[in-house]
Specification:
The chain starts with 9 loop residues before the first helix and ends in a 37-residue tail after the last strand. The longest helix has 14 residues. Strands 1, 2, 3, 4, 5, 6, 7, 8, 9 and 10 form a ten-stranded mixed beta sheet that branches. The chain has a two-stranded antiparallel ribbon with strand order 11-12. It is α+β, with helices and mostly antiparallel strands.
Length: 305
């Protein structure tokens, strides 16, 4: 673990202050690390994922002797040095060919990570299609019931959402959705092993539809990856509680008898005392007036002939 240095001037003090814990944290930075031995498939995959993650991404071009599942010290060193919360490590070996590891850190310590094998891939340079602008927020779609039932797939979904969620925004313009990321979970193998996960990226094109909303067409942009889950390291309960803790300044003060429904609409509840309907002042109609006696009214006889 690196020792916290003391600032020597105002510039270094501002730099260290920027790295301290805040009520509203900075945008998460991702580091893309190249292992000691890699393949061209892994290099292209890291390059394409780095381009989707820009500008909050750092790409390491030199080889590094690093094995996250065996020793976490290397990842924690790079995370602290670059103030990164996300990491991707690419490596290649005979035992685990075309290996891609995605993970997250909390307080510069490894929180959770998942190891994926790249079974097939198409890079952006191979597809040669229109590419989205840098720093755009994607629309993410997850297909398959495994993402809500299988623990490994739920971890993969959580990590991918953290990787590509972009800036936090209350509203997004329709024209600002330049590309879509779809992640589809394939069926399991006949032996019960994990199935393939299809990672696809598309750019959007708006066409005239004759209506107010345009017709949207998707064109494959890349990267296009067929992944298979290999190893998973889950987050501990104690670290997870610390990671999702909301500061007091951001907690919404609960107002009595006022709440919100599932769609975010605000509604209130009003409590009233017991009402006596007989004492309510209503319109005085002669036909509804209560008689003091119970004698029936005399009907006038018709004397006209």
């Amino acid at each position: 673990m690196l020792l916290q240095p003391k600032p020597k001037n105002a510039r270094s003090k501002r730099f260290l202050t920027n790295r301290e814990a805040k009520v509203v944290e900075n945008q998460k930075t991702a580091i893309f690390i190249r292992g000691s031995t890699t393949s061209q498939v892994i290099l292209d995959t890291l390059k394409d994922l780095h381009s989707l993650r820009k500008p909050n991404a750092i790409n390491f071009t030199k080889k590094n002797e690093i094995h996250p599942f065996d020793d976490e010290a290397g990842i924690e060193f790079f995370a602290r040095k670059n103030d990164a919360s996300l990491f991707a490590v690419g490596m290649h070996s005979k035992k685990r060919p075309h290996n891609l590891i995605l993970g997250r850190t909390f307080n510069h310590q490894v929180m959770d990570m998942i190891e994926l094998g790249v079974e097939a891939s198409k890079s952006v340079s191979e597809i040669k299609a229109k590419v989205c602008a840098v720093g755009m927020k994607p629309l993410m779609v997850f297909n398959g019931e495994q993402f809500s039932q299988d623990q490994d797939m739920m971890t993969l979904k959580n990590i991918l959402l953290d990787f590509f969620r972009g800036d936090v925004a209350d509203k997004v313009s329709l024209k600002g959705l330049e590309y879509v990321i779809t992640v589809t979970a394939g069926p399991r193998t006949p032996t019960g092993g994990p199935g393939l996960v299809y990672f696809r990226t598309y750019t959007t094109t708006f066409k005239k539809s004759g209506m107010r909303q345009p017709r949207i067409e998707l064109e494959e942009m890349g990267p296009s990856l067929d992944l298979r889950v290999r190893r998973v390291r889950y987050v501990s309960d104690e670290m997870w509680k610390q990671a999702i803790r909301v500061p007091k300044e951001l907690k919404i003060t609960k107002v009595k008898n006022i709440g919100r429904d599932g769609l975010g609409d605000k509604y209130g509840r009003v409590h009233m005392g017991r009402q006596d309907v007989s004492k309510i002042q209503t319109r005085k109609v002669k036909a509804l007036r209560k008689r003091l006696d119970n004698k029936p009214r005399k009907q006038k006889m018709d004397t006209s002939e």
